Amino acid sequence: MSFATSFQPARAELPPNIDVDEVVADLAGDHVAAEGKTTKETAELVDIVEQAQSAGIELSIIVIPANPGHDSMLRDLATEVGKQEGGTVVVLSPDWIGTYSTTISRVQLETAEDPAKNQGGNSTVAAQKFTDELMTDSLPWTAITAVLLAVTVAVVAGLYVVKSRRDEPVVTPSTEKSEIPD
Predict the structure, then answer these.
(1) Which of 44, 53, 90, 138 has the fewest CB atoms nearer than 10 Å to its CB?
(2) Which spans are transmembrane here (predicted)?
């Protein structure tokens, strides 16, 4: 193994028997590719996609029937599909979830993944929990950071003023020099 090959990114590993082109073609109509799901379940997933789209989230849902060898395969599949489709892609297996998005941060995606995991194959519940978490307003961390920074600067400036006043000599009548004639 050469030095150059040891720093190559790992090849994406997709779940077995999954063809990305077929998945993308299946998503074309309603943004849902649900292998092995009933018409009712697929309709419920389409409703979830429409809810997300009304909230400004361009969502595509992929459901695979079995957990792959490793949960990272779901994220790899979501990434491959997302690079072609754009938006936010969620891949669900019975117990795991993988995501990719061109518009939502990885932190937000992973936060939304947690309640959607381990739903025992109920992809509708998992997808709903995922989208509900994405649509929940999160704390405005930028504003909170700006306020904390401003308060810190004000406290430091206040302490500087107090310290500089403390260092000035206080003139009192007993410390004034008086002229005594010789």
Answers:
(1) 138
(2) 139-162
User: H/E element holding 98?
Assistant: strand 97-101
Provide the CB-side half-sphere exposure for 139 (13 A, CA): 6
Token code pair at residue 167: 């260092």
Side-chain-facing half-sphere of 88: CA atoms under 13 Å = 24
3-class secondary-structure state, position 95: coil
Each residue of 20-78: pLDDT tens digit?
888 888 888 889 988 777 788 889 999 999 999 988 889 999 999 888 888 889 999 99
**Contact (Cβ atoms closer than 8 angstroms) between residue 78 and residue 98:** yes
Nearest to 98 by CA among 115, 120, 117, 125: 117
What the block records as the tokens of 110 is 């992973």
Side chain identity at residue 9, one-letter code = P
Alpha helices by DSSP H, listed for the chain, are 20-30, 39-54, 72-85, 106-116, 123-135, 141-167
Are 90 and 99 in contact, with CB atoms under 8 Å apart? yes
| CB-CB contact of 63 with 47 (8 Å) | no
